[in-house]
Amino acid sequence: MKAVVVHGPGDVRVDERARPVPGAGEVLLALEWGGICGSDIAYWKKGASGTASLVHPLVLGHEFAGRIAALGDGVTGLHEGQPVTVHPAQPVGDGALPERIAGRTNLYPRVRYFGSAALTPHTDGGFSEYRAVPATQIRPLPDGVGTEQGALAEPLAVALHAVGRAPRLRGRTVLVNGCGPIGSLVVAAARYHGADRVVAADLAAPSLAVARAMGADETRDLSAGDVLPEDVDVVFEASGAPAALGPVLRATARGGTLVQVGNLPGTAAAAALGDLVTREITWIGSYRFVEEIDEALRALRDGLDVTPLITHRFPLEQAEEALATAADPRSGSSKVMLRLTAESTES
Q1: Class of domain 2-155+289-339
Q2: Where is this region: Disordered (predicted)?
């Protein structure tokens, strides 16, 4: 089978690998669609994502969906041909967490995540024609939700987790700063959770167009001199740019809440943070998700439309071009999708 494998910085190849055989408790997936994430780009460009560095080749991809091709021994409740996606995280260890974070498995100290080099050996992802997956990580797609949409359940779950970290949104005005794929999904998630008005801000007009299509009532083009609104109850910072923190804190109402969704640098960076104290702002971090992928699938079933997020589609054989498109701000891309089969059963 073909697989998209990163071998080092700037070195991604479509390799031939043996088709896996599902073991006991596993399911073999014939994969159809995968979505490119910032971590995939980082492994390709730098050989690392955050603190995780490649020590051997890695199959990329943690956003993917397909159909069950075979069941391993002992698997029940699933059937061949069934369209599914996956929960990409699997805690490593006894599962025990301190009482203060009981149930928050996204904060478990050691987690295997598809397409991640955080542990050695690395955890191969799903940018391949087939992938064996533990049945416990399989999530069937609801009727009416295709595998292309299903591949985006994972980033939608990230957005829903972020929204869940905030106070109740119903009837409130929300600001989303940074309208890449996650930011635009936060727009949709905030709308899904009943936000009365959603304002989206970014430096790129194409990203703002996607945010509008995903449900933003108003957009602010910061590159054209627009400024952030004032006194917003709940703000989501999705750019991960330290320079944005000062203006975003200033936009947050006194006593309001700022949810940090965008990954901030792991090294020292200058940022203006004075308003955090003087305005008594609650600043909350948001990391991956727990079981919100189930909520994401319900939202897709109920009509939340993620297709405006998709700007480009490439066949698996053109993975490097797809990564380059996703990484290039001049391309106008939002979510770039890989078609993981020669002929997908749907578009």
Answers
A1: alpha beta
A2: 324-347
